[in-house]
Amino acid sequence: IITDLPAVEFYDFEPDTGDLRSEVIAGLSSSPKYLPPKYFYDQRGSELFDQICELPEYYVTRTELGLLQRHGEEMAALAGKDAVLMELGSGSSMKIRTLLAALQPQAYVAMDISKDHLLGAATQLAEDFGWLEVHAVCVDYSQPWEFPYQKQGRRTAFFPGSSLGNFEPGAAKTLLSQIGDLVGRGGGLLIGIDLQKDVTVLEAAYNDAQGVTEAFNKNLLMRLNAELKANFDIDNFTHKALWNPAQNRIEMHLFSQIQQTIQIDGHKFNLAPGESIHTENSYKYTLKQFQTLASSAGFETLKVWTDDDDLFSVHYLQF
Ligand code: AVJ
Asked: Which end of the chain has less Cβ packing within 10 Å, N or C?
């Protein structure tokens, strides 16, 4: 039998579920209660996120893609050819497709926490771009990393989708510094950053009419019921996303409608009626705020692109 599977080099750093357990217990022990958003992305969560990206209210993905399509040649000129292109949180590896022909990287390295989704996406990409050397790295990029990936050559990181928005300002600065270490002096970072805008537009993007974001949010509890044998009564939670003007962020919450006691591994967590579990922050920046943050992490801004309605921005930074 001749198998003709495109080769994907796979590296598994095994971001472990022991982290899931301890981080969930820490979050539910806190007041107010919270859960880390990186755990949204199991197989089902990744599928739901892909659906979110197509929602009419969720302007983020389509606006960023428009910018990548419109200015791809300019972005590629800044990055230079033959770079090692490394995407943080590559998910379905859809956006990078827009840039590959122009960028002509010597290799593409997809990095993601969700192993099955990562492998599927990397394999599909290698199939569709036969000339491209594809690597897949299963890793939790939000943890301080020791990255033994040895490929030589100038590096460009790709961090689209405003994923940086999930991090508190201090942690965002730390992560940007880590990306600087990853690409090295003279390396590049092409990053998508969502912008501050009208509250109604922002809140609609996270409270969509079809309830996909609600399903995405509740899927986190389904995952904890399945993987940690927790007992969340999911039908008795209400999804709600709210703009926090003091902190410049959208907050996603799950409000328990009833009193319930959650048990995980002998730990008990009491939820009062109306009590929230805070599941995500999505920070929004002004161009100036983001540039200040990037420069505090050692990056120089070479170019910024925005759409006509100033909904979203893409930045090319050099370390
Ligand atoms: C992937 C973190 C950028 O904050 O907009 C979308 C995640 N959550 N809808 C975002 C998300 C609810 C998304 N990020």
From this structure: N
Supply the pLDDT for residue 222. Answer: 98
C-alpha 282 – ligand 1 centre gap (Å):
7
The per-residue pLDDT for 114 is: 86
Distances (CA, A) of 94 to 90, 151, 260: 8, 23, 40
Residues with Cβ within 8 Å of residue 106, at least 6 apart in sequence: 82, 83, 84, 133, 153
Identify the segments of the chain with pLDDT beneath 50. none
Pocket test for ligand 1, best of 47, 280, 285 (most atoms within 8 A of CB): 280
Alpha carbon distance 68, 73 (integer Å): 9
Contacts of 7 (CB under 8 A, 6+ apart): 126, 134
